[in-house]
Amino acid sequence: MADGGGPSVAARDDLAGVVDLFTWLSRAELSQALSELAFKSRTEVDEDAIDAAIDLAVAEYALVPAPEAALSSAGDESASDRETALAVGPAAFPTLPEGAEDLPHILDVPDREVDREALSDAVLERLREEAVAAIRDGDDDRLETLADVTYDVEAWAPVDVDPVRTRIFAEVDEEA
Question: Is the pLDDT of residue 87 over 70?
Answer without folding.
Answer: yes
